[in-house]
Amino acid sequence: MPAVDLRAARAALLARTPLVHCLTNTVVQAITANALLAAGAAPAMVDAPEEAGDFAAVASAVLVNVGTVHARTAEAMRLAARSAGAAGTPWVLDPVAVGGLVYRTELATELVGLRPTVVRGNASEVMALAGAGGGGRGVDSTDSTDDAAKAAAELAARTGGVVAVSGEVDLVTDGRRTVRVGGGSPLLTRTTGAGCALGALVGAYVAATGDPLTGAVAAHAHVAVAAERAARVASGPGTFAPAWLDALDAVDGAALTAADVR
Asked: Is 45 known to sit in a ligand binding site?
């Protein structure tokens, strides 16, 4: 495993309070904003085409999530991605349900051409985006992270960035180095928005650390550790969601260092 200093990554996020510009789906805006705040970052939901490009240039990081995309937000995403690239701002592409629907698949493919810093999705989404089949059942994957490993490495090589594949064991690769993050809880898959919030946290950690691989690993470890803690006190999905937010706040560098990262 490549050296990844998770304690330093947590300290950097808390010290820098990165501002994450989220162009994300309407279902998860509140949980995404709350997850960023709980972890120590700052959210902004600026999705108008008239503002998205300008804001992306001054934000610490940008999240582009195509979950409930339409023509107006698609244009804002293009403008934000181009602006982030020109400004050197790290940006994360979350290709929600790509492979199953033509419009969003074409948009996500176009956005990949703008070289996202990190692509974060489930195995089916990553495989579809890489042109290796895939395409799950809506937002749910029908493939495993191991199924997507080769496609993820090839996609990372194409973008020059990092690809993170979420699953029972998460996989993070830059095309040369690969890190796996275990842990978490099945309740994450029964709570709306946890995966989308993870994309925003990836942006926050990448901005704080200046290292896409370290940042992506730290975000996945943070979410997994918080989920384990929340699951211990929750009685089901309804109590898990607020417990997870509390746990995101409580996770410190020592807890991340003890995470299942290999």
From this structure: yes
Quick: pLDDT tens for 157-180.
999 999 999 999 999 999 999 999
Supply the DSSP symbol for 98.
Answer: B
Q: Is 235 buried (19+), middle (13-18) or exposed (0-12) by CB count in 10 A?
A: exposed
**Contact present, 205 and 92 (Cβ < 8 Å):** no
Which pair of tokens denotes residue 215?
């940042």
120 annotated as ligand-binding? yes
pLDDT reported for residue 141 = 58
Which CATH fold topology does 6-249 show? UDP-N-acetylmuramoyl-L-alanine:D-glutamate ligase (3.40.1190)
What residues does each domain of the chain span?
A: 6-249
d(CA 107, CA 95): 9
Q: How far apart are alpha carbons 12 and 9 in whole angstroms?
A: 5
The answer to the question of whether 177 is labelled as a binding residue is: no
Q: pLDDT tens, 97-146?
A: 999 899 999 999 999 999 999 999 999 999 999 998 755 555 555 689 99
Distance (Å) of CA 77 to CA 74, 108, 120, 163, 260? 5, 10, 16, 19, 34
E strand intervals along the chain: 19-23, 42-44, 61-65, 91-94, 118-122, 162-166, 170-173, 178-181
Alpha carbon distances (Å) from 92 to 142, 203, 240:
23, 6, 26
